[in-house]
Design a protein that fits this description.
Helix 4 links the parallel strand 9 and strand 10. The protein is 11% helix and 24% strand. Strands 1-13-11-5-7-9-10-4-12 form a nine-stranded mixed β-sheet, covered by helices on one side. A two-stranded antiparallel ribbon has the order 2-3. Strands 6-8 form a two-stranded parallel ribbon. It is built from four helices and 13 strands. By secondary structure, the protein is of the alpha/beta class.
Amino acid sequence: MMIDLTHTLTTSTEAPMSIWPGHPTLQMKKVATIPEQNANVTLISLGSHTGTHIDAPNHFIADGLTVDKYDLTKLVGRALVIDVRGKKERERITWEDMQKWEGEMHKGVIVLICTGWSQYWGKENYEDHPFIDLDAAKKLMETGVRVIGCDTLSPDSRICSPECEVHIEILGAGGMIAENLRGIEQVLALKDPIVSLLPLKLDSCDGSPIRAIAWSAGDILG
């Protein structure tokens, strides 16, 4: 079974997307159609951090790696889900909340923070998500983990941690952060889950939309 962890990119007003305030909005325009040009072609305009996407170190670190330079083997690997769905809006996710999974944290593991907040995608309170405490981020990096994913707008809080110190801690350690994942709770049902967070190969870019998926290691895809 393959699980799609990606929100749909859409310009529909009936199913609006959440986006970081001030970032470019998605625009899609047909520039060719089958009746007129014998083919459909769409012009797409969006920010590097639109929808389900991944942050490269260069997002906050001036000399950090960009998405086209990052080691892709680090973005496909064993998934470890940290289930903190009991957290309330703007509540800190502390190291104490994560500590029981510490024995499974090590180099090569991709940590997915499951808050359940993807249910609010496109709604006003999506910005009021729980967020990772800076000390927890530091201890997470000490385990050797370098890639995390969250089902929220950010691992930081725009209100409670406006300096984005968790971003700086993880990206400064050479890590990557996948944001706006959906349905992480479904990964809990997988045996030996594998996750893929591969970006587009955008030259010298600080981030990229991704098609995030997860599956069981024993499954044969195809």
